[in-house]
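Hello forum,

I keep getting stuck at the same step: I have a sequence, I want structure tokens, and every attempt I make locally crashes halfway through. Rather than fight my setup again tonight, could one of you with a working pipeline run this one for me? It's a single chain of 153 residues.
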Amino acid sequence: MKPTKNKSDFKNYYDVVVTFDKVDMLHIVNNAVYFNYFEQARIKYAKDIGFLPEKGISLDGTTFYMVRNEINYLKAALFEDRLRVYTRIAYIKNSSFGFEHIIENLDKGIIIAEGTGVLAHVDPVLKKSVPLPEEFYQKVLGYEHKVEILKSK
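Reply #2:
Ran it on my machine without issues. Output:
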């Protein structure tokens, strides 16, 4: 995993305050919670770019499966920390695309975690990957200033 640590590469972000139910008996954010933060950030990203409707998560007959999730924990987050989850699509292939994430502790001004995730575009009936529509590429390229297209011809 080689995520970008430069915040200026990220246009989209999701803010969250660590609540009591997210910390474990060591008083730090449980490791699995970071994946929930990434998921919420990806949903916000999809809504902001126009892939999902403002209300709800209907995809009009298309499906995306999470096929890879990776995280590096750099520093612990604690109860009531203010976090910002930066999210971007780093690359697009034929039927899949990759997200990068970084989480910043806004109170301390430090990056506390970084991660990546891969989603595959899947036919909901056949349960097999299918090519991403051209509209997907256009929306991402119109939104992101730094995305790699790895689409084979």
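DSSP finds two helices and six strands in the chain. If your local run keeps crashing, start a new thread with the error log.
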